[in-house]
């Protein structure tokens, strides 16, 4: 088999994963897209290892060993990532990435003393009237 076939498949997998990371708002789908990108890298590692082992005299299979290490790291990453997403979902009721900045301590989205970015508005100086917020 030519080296181009797995390389093109890995490029398609990586581009699909990159699109998923950039376009998705759900944290679980973003984690799945990262896994697609890691699997594309693993496919390249194994394909290039097989291609180089034919040309080299000694077969260390370092690409396959590195792919196994990457799989172990990806399993740990998905476990920790899902634990974080579940904790956020239990606290906030959503796993929307755009709403994660609202999880900062002390931020109440219904607080009239904060602006649209969540920062507290300055207190009026002594002798000034506080403006009514509408």
Automatic annotation (TrEMBL):
<feature type="compositionally biased region" description="Basic and acidic residues">
    <location>
        <begin position="99"/>
        <end position="109"/>
    </location>
</feature>
<dbReference type="InterPro" id="IPR001133">
    <property type="entry name" value="NADH_UbQ_OxRdtase_chain4L/K"/>
</dbReference>
<dbReference type="Pfam" id="PF00420">
    <property type="entry name" value="Oxidored_q2"/>
</dbReference>
<keyword id="KW-0813">Transport</keyword>
<dbReference type="GO" id="GO:0050136">
    <property type="term" value="F:NADH dehydrogenase (quinone) (non-electrogenic) activity"/>
</dbReference>
<keyword id="KW-1133">Transmembrane helix</keyword>
<keyword id="KW-1278">Translocase</keyword>
<keyword id="KW-0472">Membrane</keyword>
<feature type="transmembrane region" description="Helical">
    <location>
        <begin position="66"/>
        <end position="89"/>
    </location>
</feature>
<keyword id="KW-0874">Quinone</keyword>
<keyword id="KW-1003">Cell membrane</keyword>
<dbReference type="InterPro" id="IPR039428">
    <property type="entry name" value="NUOK/Mnh_C1-like"/>
</dbReference>
<keyword id="KW-0812">Transmembrane</keyword>
<feature type="region of interest" description="Disordered">
    <location>
        <begin position="99"/>
        <end position="134"/>
    </location>
</feature>
<comment type="function">
    <text>NDH-1 shuttles electrons from NADH, via FMN and iron-sulfur (Fe-S) centers, to quinones in the respiratory chain. The immediate electron acceptor for the enzyme in this species is believed to be a menaquinone. Couples the redox reaction to proton translocation (for every two electrons transferred, four hydrogen ions are translocated across the cytoplasmic membrane), and thus conserves the redox energy in a proton gradient.</text>
</comment>
<protein>
    <recommendedName>
        <fullName>NADH-quinone oxidoreductase subunit K</fullName>
        <ecNumber>7.1.1.-</ecNumber>
    </recommendedName>
</protein>
<keyword id="KW-0560">Oxidoreductase</keyword>
<keyword id="KW-0520">NAD</keyword>
<comment type="subunit">
    <text>NDH-1 is composed of 14 different subunits. Subunits NuoA, H, J, K, L, M, N constitute the membrane sector of the complex.</text>
</comment>
<comment type="similarity">
    <text>Belongs to the complex I subunit 4L family.</text>
</comment>
């Amino acid at each position: 088999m030519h080296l181009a076939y797995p390389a093109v498949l890995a490029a398609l997998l990586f581009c699909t994963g990159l699109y998923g990371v950039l376009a998705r708002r759900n944290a679980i789908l973003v984690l799945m897209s990262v896994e697609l990108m890691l699997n594309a890298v693993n496919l390249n590692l194994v394909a290039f290892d097989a291609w180089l082992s034919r040309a080299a005299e000694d077969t260390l299979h370092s690409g396959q060993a590195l792919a196994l290490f990457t799989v172990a790291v990806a399993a740990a990453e998905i476990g920790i990532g899902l634990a974080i997403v579940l904790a956020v979902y239990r606290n906030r009721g959503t796993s929307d990435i755009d709403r994660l900045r609202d999880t900062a301590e002390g931020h109440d989205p219904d607080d009239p003393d904060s602006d649209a970015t969540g920062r507290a508005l300055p207190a009026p100086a002594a002798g000034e009237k506080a403006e009514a917020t509408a």
